[in-house]
UniProtKB/TrEMBL annotation:
InterPro entries found in the cross-reference section: OMP_efflux, TolC-like
Family, similarity comment: Belongs to the outer membrane factor (OMF) (TC 1.B.17) family.
One Pfam family recorded for the sequence: OEP
One of the record's GO cellular component terms: efflux pump complex
UniProt name for this protein: Transporter
């Protein structure tokens, strides 16, 4: 590449660096941190996890006594009459009657066939399920952030490639005009160079639009103002040391979807325990302190009152309920079988996804090396073609072909890196092993 092209490239780099200084440089670590703090779906999942944790109490499981205070006050005004057995009668208009009852009652289920203990264990498993769902949400959202971030890196690299081709197209147009001015080229060569330059500028504008829209999407994932401007890093680092066996082992331990299915099986088993508890008697202790008072304007007794302590117990045993107990136990056992089937299904799906994604990952790693070599060859070919075009020993069509080959090679190399990164992210997401 000659001195003028190098000079133009340096000028372009200077302006790009000046623009970069005015923008926030957002790293992938910072993007993930912002997403963990701001993303709406992660916030909702965190709240749901806290709800599950809050529900784990012995009171919610039914182990603690309950105390209830009550007050009842009834009043009436009536026209009343009474006829006694001896034939005498009495009557009173606007007779006032009132009664007042208040007190505190205490109830405590001391035995219910161990249902309360199974319920407490079930609440703990539901908390674990909430944690697994939170982890799943975080993995999905962090995966989206990674994909969107490295898409921006890829598009930024493509912008750089299009900037380079415009510099070359400008140089070509200048050479064509110079040759035309001294009579060594036709006007057609100048027009072709101008058309190709315009085409490159259109492609650059389209790429800038795509780049801007990708920024807006990433800002959405980060739950912040879509107008916030920033710049991402200029390189994609792909972990090329992933091993399928290691990923499979991690997925069996850490994949949140599989973990949720295993927890669901445990919840179903605890539900069966609660259903079986209905076969045993239920014993409930009761106690209370009550006060009652009543007044009547007509009758043998004008007022009564009572107060005191009451206590006792209540025991019940289900002897026959129309075979519903048998039916409920059968349904609970079938639900356990369904969770076991779901675990087997999820294991198969997970292993299939891992195998497919890993094969894609290996292919993309090979494509990176291949496209890197292609870019180097295309660059060397462009430099040779440019030298030949400068001295007029090559046609404009051949020059344009070499130029486009170079741009396409850079774009393909960028795409190969991005696709390999997506494969890496997908594998780590399946293994539940994205670092954030």
């Amino acid at each position: 590449m000659n001195t003028k092209i190098l000079f133009h490239s340096l000028i372009l780099c200077f302006f790009c660096l000046t623009s970069m200084q005015a923008q926030e440089v957002l790293t992938i670590e910072e993007a993930m941190k912002i997403a963990l703090e701001n993303n709406f779906e992660i916030k909702i999942a965190k709240n749901n996890s806290v709800i599950s944790e809050t529900n784990v109490t012995i009171g919610n499981a039914g182990m603690l006594p309950t105390a209830t205070a009550s007050v009842t006050d009834n009043n009436s005004i009536q026209n009343s009459s009474q006829t006694r057995q001896d034939g005498t009668s009495t009557s009173l208009n606007n007779a006032k009657n009132n009664s007042l009852n208040y007190g505190v009652s205490l109830g405590w289920t001391v035995f219910d066939g161990m249902r309360m203990f199974a319920r407490l264990d079930q609440l703990k498993e539901l908390q674990k399920l909430g944690d697994a769902e939170l982890k799943s949400t975080i993995l999905v959202k962090i995966g989206q952030v990674n994909a969107a971030y490295y898409d921006l890196v890829q598009q930024q690299q493509q912008l750089s490639a299009l900037d380079t081709t415009i510099v070359i197209s400008n140089q070509r147009l200048t050479l064509a005009k110079n040759r035309f001015s001294i009579g060594k080229a036709s006007k057609l060569e100048v027009l072709n160079a101008q058309v190709d330059l315009n085409s490159d500028q259109v492609a650059l504008l389209r790429q800038k639009e795509s780049y801007a829209n990708a920024k807006i999407l990433l800002n959405q994932y980060l739950a912040r103002d879509p107008k916030i401007d920033f710049k991402v890093t200029d390189f994609v680092t792909v972990d090329n040391k992933l091993v399928l066996a290691d990923l499979t082992n991690l997925a069996q331990k850490q994949n949140p979807v599989l973990e949720s299915q295993i927890i669901n099986k445990r919840i179903a088993e605890l539900q069966l325990k609660q259903v079986r508890a209905n076969r045993y008697p239920t014993l409930r202790l009761t106690s209370g302190y009550n006060f009652a008072e009543s007044e009547s304007s007509l009758g043998f007794t004008s007022s009564t009152s009572s107060k005191g302590l009451n206590y006792g117990f209540n025991a019940t045993l289900n002897i026959f309920d129309g075979f519903n107990q048998h039916r409920n136990e059968k349904v609970a056992k079938l639900q356990i079988q369904n969770t076991e089937i779901a675990i087997e299904q999820q294991n198969l799906i997970l292993n299939t996804q891992l195998s497919t994604a890993f094969q894609t990952y290996l292919t993309n790693l090979e494509l990176i090396d291949l496209e890197e070599d292609n870019e180097a060859i295309a660059k060397q070919n462009l430099e040779i073609t440019l030298d030949k075009f400068r001295i007029g020993t090559i046609t404009t069509i051949d020059f344009r072909t070499a130029q486009l080959n170079y741009v396409n090679a850079k774009v393909r190399y960028s795409n190969a890196q991005y696709e390999a990164k997506l494969s890496e992210i997908a594998l780590k997401e399946l293994a539940g092993n994205i670092n954030f």
